[in-house]
Specification:
single chain, alpha+beta, Alpha-Beta Plaits
Amino acid sequence: METIEQQVRELFCWLCQTPHPSGEEAALRERIADRLRGLGLHPWADTRGNLVCDLPGREGAPLTAVQAHIDMVCAVGSPDYVPSRDPIRPIVRDGFLCTAGESSLGADCGAGAAVMLWLAEHPAPQRPPLRLLFTVDEEVGLGGARDLDPACVDGVRYLINTDGFHWGRIVIGSAGGVREHFTRALTHSNAPELPNGRAYRLKISGLRGGHSGFDIGKTRANALILLGELLRETRMESPFALIDLSGGTAFNAIPYEATADILTIAPAQDAIEQIWDKIYARIQKNDPDARLEIQDIDIPSRVWSGDTASGLLTVLGGFADGVYARHPSGVVSDSSNLGHIYYKDGMVCLDAMLRCMDAQAEQALQLSHRTVCAMCGFAGQIVSRYPAWPAQDNGTLQTLAAQCYLDATGQEAEVTVQHVGLEPSHLLAKNEQMECICVGMELLDCHSPQERWKLDTIEPFVEMIQRLLSRLSTAPQP
């Protein structure tokens, strides 16, 4: 007989068969709906694409929702991997589920979605009426939750969000977030004729990267910021023209790779390596696998204009990135992540993510970013924003969840607020009578090819959820 861990893992691998990066969840949503119909259930979707399915439960018990998002950040670790085409290929390694490094795993939040399917396939008499809520576009500004039809949470008294990354942590509030987008027209000029000129491709890789909410307080280096530092220092030793620069993958992922092509007036590899050695000495404690690859490339006929190149390098030097403030408890309060630089439609584009619990800190960071970018010719706009989830302390759901964790493990749960955007911030606006918590299993290095899911946290998590639902089935209606 299969264990709960095996059953949940198989459901997750089933989810992984269908590509589901943000904005491309429709095929997976339909597969989930078909599977639920096969159980005799009646799922339905709102106009935004969020999927809802009700499960029967004890009559008179409060309606309880269990919720996960079905999109993922697909961080690519192999040039042959295409997120919209290729499935995720999970493997088991050293007690974790992970990939071989070609992509991120998508356990954020596929792990929670797999547990929800397990609940649907394993009915229990001691449960309240359950509503499974599979949302979309969480990774791009909580879009599905923001645009959710209020009917999806109508009548729900308790909502259990399964987007937690740490087993044993019960989240009762979260930071707000702002996604920023900056652009500047990319202009070119003819490459100078340099008798001793050399063209190089500089690639910084091997950084740990990670989620810009959960991991930004761990002092992990940002590959784009490091590349900017390397190039500015190199320019002092050997002037160059910039041929290309790009890196990162998403607003909310700490960049683990970045690449620049440059044309120097003379051979400069030794000088570049010496500069990198100094940078690496500073970051190696937290990013020991960081490396710089230098490759000779053909000298191009065109390079970026001096104004464009200088503007971008100045932005990389002045852009506020990393932790801005912490709570006295040590939890990150306010932060910024420069997540992606790329070229599109004739424009150099920068994407950044702010996460703040303090409104004044959010305003200060926005002003800082707008100022340095405007000085360098970049125009900015707000792509999306979401509110903070004010802490809901000492509620029925929190209290019962903490007790169920204690019963399942013999240990006290950590009850806290979190430095990430969580969907309850929008869901509560649709139904202010709900109590919400966020819980999850142990996930590491999400939004990176090193993402992994600790398998021995699956069974106790499911046991805790089962205990919690049983307790809620006898909870009085308000």
